[in-house]
């Protein structure tokens, strides 16, 4: 076959598919018509890793395609960086030079011979194509000349495959980020900052000062005060607002997994690592990472975090090469980091790195004027979440009671209290929320069905008792007024606004004896 015909048919087989396995299979089939081949390999040299990456291989004898780069010795690096010949004939890959020996070992090649052809486009080396046959000195100079005829189609095909692989990888990363960020956005959507003009006015002023900068921020405050909400507001007010906002609860991830969660891992780095995984820092590249409960982070991991903050580089678990990341760090804790430093439970150098711009969020008991607005916000939010048909009103005296309650769980406890009260209101078919278990005032019923003063004149409900005690006292007083009667217009169920069956169920649950007095 003349060169032109060989080039034409070879180009058709090389350009048969962007899928490298299909392409190499077609190429091997074509080349075997003209030479005694057993396989073909595409490799590239990565100068940053000082390693060879096997892009693909196809053979009719057993070979193994390495998934990780083939790292070279010093001699191997010097050999490959000085080997500029376009075509090199190899009598035995298992003994020819440190580079070929490393590749043959990685691919588990048997004793074999063949040619190595550097593929170039406009004098720039794209990679190499290797053809081989089992045994020594199996291929002739003519076979090498035919391989050189196909330099351009091989080089273009390899370049296209590398670009396609890069684009596919970027697409997969983008899809992965989109799925992850969608889940995160669903968690934070709808959050508002209640009290930004009153109880949180100073906090928001500080957040506004630091948001445009890249400074590290340490948010301090008791559990449930809304540290994540403030971190979220800072990110979305910053120049990084269109980049990822990744949050990590350092206290909610086990010590065994948090290293992998933060920094990622390579495939096979530990049992169960069936694929490469990017950590939260890589996901946050160009954006912000929120490290909640930073005081719970293990000491060994604190050391790795400190290195990331100092150098802007990380290494995946099981990885060998540093990865550059551009991430703004916002940390938060409800613990006293200075005390943890004194106890040796938190690194002093890490504390200095994080404590650049501390923001302290006051507890809810110090911002009582925000409570009514927070309650109304949570009522509207929970009505939607619980799919309730109506928005109940708040008894006027209830607001005073809940403002006097200390709320040790802060905003989170208040939100749970609102949800609990809505559920009870729905079950009892009431039109108002009373929050009877909070504050010091006695529980009240609806104005139009209030109990006469004579019911509670002899005794008063416990001021700081459990909710069940307060309810028990109120029901007992009503039963005494009705002489134990439950049903009817003058019965206890009517006065309490309950169905008689519901009231009897509550009486049994609370252990209250009932029945008409004789």
Name the CATH homologous superfamily of the largest domain.
Answer: GAF domain
State the share of residues found in helices, binned by percent.
40-55%
Low-confidence stretches: 440-465
Q: Please compute the radius of gyration using only Cα atoms.
A: 36 Å
Secondary structure layout:
Elements: H1 3-14, H2 20-31, E1 39-46, E2 51-59, E3 70-71, H3 74-82, E4 87-90, H4 97-107, E5 112-121, E6 124-134, H5 141-149, H6 151-188, H7 201-210, E7 217-220, H8 227-236, E8 245-249, H9 255-263, H10 280-283, E9 288-292, H11 299-311, E10 313-314, E11 323-324, E12 328-333, H12 337-342, H13 348-354, E13 357-360, H14 371-385, E14 393-394, H15 396-404, H16 410-428, E15 432-433, H17 467-481, H18 492-496, H19 500-510
Parallel strand pairs: 7-12, 7-13, 8-9, 9-12, 14-15
Antiparallel strand pairs: 1-2, 1-6, 2-3, 4-5, 5-6, 10-11
Helix pairs in contact: 1-2, 3-4, 14-16
């Amino acid at each position: 076959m003349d060169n032109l015909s060989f080039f034409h048919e070879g180009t058709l087989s090389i350009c048969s598919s962007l899928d490298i396995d299909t392409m190499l299979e077609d190429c091997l089939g074509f080349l075997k018509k003209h030479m005694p081949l057993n396989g073909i390999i595409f490799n590239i040299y990565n100068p940053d890793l000082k390693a060879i990456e096997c892009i693909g291989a196809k053979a009719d004898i057993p070979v193994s395609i390495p998934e990780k780069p083939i790292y070279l010795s010093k001699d191997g690096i010097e050999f490959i960086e000085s080997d500029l010949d376009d075509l090199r004939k190899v009598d035995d890959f298992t003994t020819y030079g440190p580079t070929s020996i490393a590749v043959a070992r990685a691919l588990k090649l048997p004793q074999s011979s063949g040619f190595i052809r550097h593929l170039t486009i406009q004098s720039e080396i794209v990679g190499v194509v290797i053809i081989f046959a089992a045994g020594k000195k199996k291929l002739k100079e003519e076979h090498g000349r035919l391989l050189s005829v196909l330099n351009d189609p091989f080089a273009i095909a390899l370049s296209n495959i590398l670009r396609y692989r890069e684009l596919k990888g970027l697409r997969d990363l983008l899809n992965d980020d989109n799925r992850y960020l969608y889940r995160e956005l669903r968690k934070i959507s709808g959050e508002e900052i209640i009290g930004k003009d009153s109880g949180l006015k100073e906090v928001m002023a500080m957040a506004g000062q630091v948001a445009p900068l890249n400074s590290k921020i340490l948010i301090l405050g008791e559990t449930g005060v809304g540290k994540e909400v403030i971190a979220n507001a800072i990110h979305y007010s910053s120049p990084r607002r269109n980049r990822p906002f990744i949050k990590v609860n350092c206290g909610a991830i086990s010590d065994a997994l948090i290293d992998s969660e933060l920094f990622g891992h390579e495939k096979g780095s530990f049992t169960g690592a069936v694929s490469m995984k990017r950590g939260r820092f890589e996901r946050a590249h160009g954006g912000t990472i929120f490290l909640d409960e930073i005081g719970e982070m293990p000491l060994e991991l604190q050391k790795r975090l400190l290195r990331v903050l100092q150098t802007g580089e990380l290494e995946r678990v099981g990885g060998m090469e540093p990865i550059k990341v551009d991430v703004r760090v916002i940390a938060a804790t409800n613990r006293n980091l200075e005390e943890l430093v004194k106890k040796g439970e938190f690194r002093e150098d890490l504390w200095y790195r994080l404590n650049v711009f501390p923001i302290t969020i006051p507890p809810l008991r110090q911002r009582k004027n925000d409570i009514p607005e927070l309650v109304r916000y949570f009522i509207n939010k929970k009505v939607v979440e619980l799919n309730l048909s109506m928005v109940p009103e708040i008894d006027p005296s209830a607001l005073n009671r809940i403002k006097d309650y200390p709320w040790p769980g802060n905003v989170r406890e208040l939100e749970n209290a609102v949800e609990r009260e809505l559920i009870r209101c729905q079950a009892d078919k009431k039109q108002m929320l009373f929050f009877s278990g909070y504050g010091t005032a006695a529980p009240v019923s609806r104005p139009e069905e209030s109990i006469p003063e004579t019911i509670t004149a002899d005794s008063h409900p416990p001021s700081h008792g459990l909710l069940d005690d307060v309810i028990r006292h109120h029901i007992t007083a009503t039963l005494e007024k009705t002489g134990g009667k439950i049903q009817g217009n003058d019965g206890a169920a009517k006065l309490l606004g309950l169905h008689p069956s519901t009231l009897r169920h509550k009486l049994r649950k609370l252990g209250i004896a009932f029945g008409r007095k004789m």
